[in-house]
Design a protein that fits this description.
alpha+beta, 16 helices, about 75% helix, five-stranded antiparallel beta sheet
Length: about 425
């Protein structure tokens, strides 16, 4: 029995270690994803808008087409300009010359230049000019000229303060995940998170299966009183592993983002995807660390209370039950040992933390859903779709399992102990 339970304990420890590491990896990966796709570096970044507007300008200039009506209007305007130039040139030629050279030039113009013929060919000149403008090669040159002016205007403005931060961040992320661009990075992050999430729940259910085996063994050996002491001590080791993983693994994750923001600008569709508004993921130990590091005294006090009643009390209770069961009567009957073994449950806040986190999740989830719903817009010119990915994590399942398992062990102890538990 001991050998089998030690092997099972090793399995639980392995599952717990993997779950702890995967939880840390998931938290870091999601933090990286949130940093890369933060609304500060996306929708609220001047650099992002410059790139999208530049792309629109470039596309509009290269691919613009003149309709038949626009061509007729343009031809009329070009003809008017050419007629005006001819009229002005004719007026200059009719001026009385003051020198011999001027008289010779006026004679040559009168003799060889027939303005009536030129005016008759003005419509053809206008058509040729329009055809040149509509030529793909000419449009490409015009696009390059427009983009050069656009970039010149960009450099003349104040540089976006987040630009350098963004490029530094992206360079680091590209090296870390071995990708070359943002699309590849987001694809890899999404794939990694999907794989990690599947593995986390597998190891989580693996730990719970180990606990079920232990409880089943208690039922099978309920009449073998000689084995109860050893079985109980080994059961406590299973509880310690549950507690360690439950305290260190992420319990709740708050993730709010704009999934899609689409609108039309200058006839072109502009789209922002996966813009993260807020992300945070914490374990119980992480919450305690944050609270204790705060400068405010009330935050520190709350952190100390959670540390004392939700972490130290459960550990002390588990240790006291083992001491009470294994020690001689004098030590087992020690008031402090008996108090922590049988009566400290009413002071422990582990079960309260479980309920509090569940209530926070329900309340926060409903609040975020209602608030994000106010941002949702769907019209012909603008579409905004928000998502609330707030969720309880496997760490919560492990911690609530520890609380229930601890209650079962306390009940078992009262029936197997050879000392007075009252």
């Amino acid at each position: 029995m001991i050998l089998g339970l030690l092997m099972l304990l090793s399995c639980e420890g392995y599952f717990g270690l993997q779950l702890h590491q995967l939880s840390a990896k998931q938290e870091q990966t999601k933090a990286d994803h949130s940093s890369v796709n933060s609304i500060t570096l996306g929708l609220l970044s001047v650099d992002q808008w410059q790139d999208k507007v530049a792309a629109i300008v470039n596309h509009q200039v290269k691919h613009f087409k003149l309709s038949a009506k626009q061509k007729r209007q343009l031809q009329t305007e070009v003809e008017e300009v050419i007629y005006a130039l001819i009229t002005k040139a004719e007026a200059m030629a009719n001026q009385k010359p003051q020198s011999l050279k001027g008289k010779i030039r006026k004679f040559a113009v009168k003799t060889f230049v027939k303005t009536d013929r030129i005016k008759a060919r003005v419509p053809q000149f206008a058509k040729t000019i329009i055809a040149k403008v509509d030529n793909p090669q000419q449009k490409n040159q015009l696009s390059n000229l427009a983009m050069a002016k656009f970039k010149e205007a960009q450099h003349s403005k104040t540089i976006d303060s987040t630009l350098q931060v963004k490029y530094t961040l992206l360079d680091g992320m590209y090296k870390k995940y071995q990708v070359n661009n943002v699309n590849e990075l987001n694809h890899k992050l999404a794939k990694d998170l999907e794989d990690v999430n599947i593995l986390m729940y597998r190891y989580c259910f693996g730990m719970l299966a180990c606990i079920l085996v232990v409880l089943t063994l208690w039922w099978v050996l309920r009449k073998r009183t000689a084995l109860h002491g050893t079985l109980f001590i080994l059961s406590l080791l299973f509880a310690f592993i549950l507690l360690a993983v439950g305290l260190s693994a992420s319990m709740i994750e708050v993730d709010c983002r704009i999934q899609t923001l689409d609108f039309v600008l200058l006839g072109e569709l502009v789209s922002f995807k996966d813009q993260v508004l807020f992300y945070e993921s914490k374990s119980i130990l992480g919450v305690v660390e944050v609270l204790i590091k705060q400068p405010a005294a009330d935050s520190i006090a709350v952190g100390i209370l959670i540390l004392t009643f939700s972490i130290l009390f459960p550990i002390t209770k588990l240790a006291s039950t083992g001491i009470h069961l294994l020690s001689k009567r004098k030590i087992a009957e020690n008031r402090i040992i008996k108090y922590f073994a049988f009566q400290s449950g009413k002071w422990s806040m582990a079960d309260v933390i479980v309920i509090a986190i569940l209530m926070v999740f329900i309340g926060l989830n409903g609040l975020l859903d209602s608030q994000l719903a106010l941002l949702n817009i769907k019209s012909d010119s603008l579409t905004i779709i928000t998502t609330n990915n707030t969720a309880l994590q496997p760490g919560y399942i492990i911690f609530i399992s520890f609380v229930l398992y601890g209650l079962v062990l306390s009940t078992i102890l009262k029936y197997i102990t050879s000392h007075d538990a009252h």
